[in-house]
Amino acid sequence: MEKEKVFYTLIVFSENFAGLLNQVTAVFTRRQVNIESLNVSASSIKGVHKYTITCWSTEEQIQIITKQIEKRIDVLQAHYFTDDEIFIQEVALYKLSTSKVLENPDISSAVRHHGAKIVEVNPTYTVVSKQGLTDEIMSLYYALNEYECVLQYVRSGRIAITKSCTEYLDQFLEERRRAYAELCIQNKSKADERK
Length: 195
Description:
Distance between the termini: 67 Å
Radius of gyration: 23 Å
Strand content: 35-45%
Number of helices: 6
Order of helices and strands: EHEEHEEHHEEHEEH
Shape: elongated
Largest sheet: 5 strands, antiparallel
Helix content: 40-55%
Structural class: alpha+beta
């Protein structure tokens, strides 16, 4: 019997080196796990990037993937989470036909009803922006699509932060700083003894 797959968000912190993204995605490929979304951006720590990756997996599989990613030299830390352990947001842009928007006031009502914003209007198209959870973003897409006014649609990858009061990476870096400071003290003591 195959174990039930769960939707996981993997957060990876790394130094910003070329080729690391390829190494990270290769771990998923080797395990035959499809990446649902991928977002890479600078983190709050200078020189450190944050990868937010989503996938359907068993817990056993995601544990193995996380450990394999952490073995990469440039990876500082990797953790996996279920949706109840993190705050999640996505952003979507909808390009709509301006003529259809003007002809049918229900389209503007649908935009307002879903808490979206009109960010650009010109004679050809109207751009709508919506942030929220995947279901909310898709709900607006389906509502607008019923009016046959959607010219283009794009949704970002997930961005996420933990519900923990402290960032796991901060704890990890603090432990490394302490260990380094202790090592320096030990080395100085040994050097002083040899004198």
